[in-house]
């Protein structure tokens, strides 16, 4: 079938990964932001408790360690030490993120309170409000970071979702797809973490497994051994993968080759036809087609910026698909693909990318870039399911957006 492997048959040179932000300007910026936090909180804390220097120590440690993930290779000759430095820096990054946002919110609240006081709307006890609000910032940032760390490091729970498909053939009723997304194998997600995910998915006995991008944060030589457990994924029709933006940062062509070596089926603007009924048991061609499902996959929404031959195209992914197979599912990393996918005639799109926001306040910004943040949504005649992700990116922290292994079941839509 020409629609299968249209984009995957030719090996092309991959552009160099995007260069990281220069570390010195980044370090200077974060240091200045730590100074801002210190100036806004420490004087108030000093009036409340003699233990206020502890907050100063935490801020100093945070400012010093945040750059470590970017320079660990230069300052640590031992691999284990380098890994430990990355862990410390990423944990600090998560804590600092919450400290900074909560400090901004505190300042905004104090300003509104001052305006209300100046207008005679409220009477304010500043000697109480300032120190206790500063302590609240410190306590909330530390508490959410601790809880977020536990949430991020646990094995993602299984979320079961029924997807009502209009006109679903009887042979496809109950067809299941286990979706993994945004695992981000890298500095703090290694082979043991992946093995736990593989074991959990295999217990589901899904008909197919879909990995909807952002699987890795590093090159093949760095992460080959940590991605290896994915070869153990088991499903009736196999495991299918599409690229996310992070694959292109890390060298997508090399990763495509490696994933195929592991036995995973990478779909690059192409499709496969999954036959759910024994061909010999079909009485007519119509029965044969009705018992089949088209599973298509597109490259990441931004892939064309890295390699023009990988420009994402939901229409191309259906090229030469059997017209009598009406049930069509698309794997697309970013929800932004949904508008074109709906026009192309898919009944369901599975996406990720957003992490559900991962932790406050980033969940507030996701809708500025993506049409959907998490969960099952309807767009015209197509459903789109957006996973909150199975791993995490950057800081080992999830708060208010738990990770998930999603088991989607196709069911007939009610009249």
UniProtKB/TrEMBL annotation:
GO MF term (any one): metal ion binding
Return the SUPFAM superfamilies for the record: Metallo-dependent phosphatases
Native source organism of the sequence: Variovorax paradoxus
Q: Which GO terms describe its cellular component?
A: membrane
Keyword Transmembrane helix set for record: yes
Q: Which CDD domains match?
A: MPP_YkuE_C
Q: Which GO terms describe its biological process?
A: lipid A biosynthetic process
| Name under which the protein is recorded | Serine/threonine protein phosphatase
Keywords of the record, alphabetical order, are:
Hydrolase, Membrane, Metal-binding, Transmembrane, Transmembrane helix
Q: Which residues form the Calcineurin-like phosphoesterase domain?
A: 176-356
Q: Which residues cross the membrane?
A: 51-72, 84-105, 132-150
Highest taxon of source = Bacteria
- Which Pfam families does the entry link to? Metallophos (PF00149)
Q: How far does the signal peptide extend, from start to end residue?
A: none
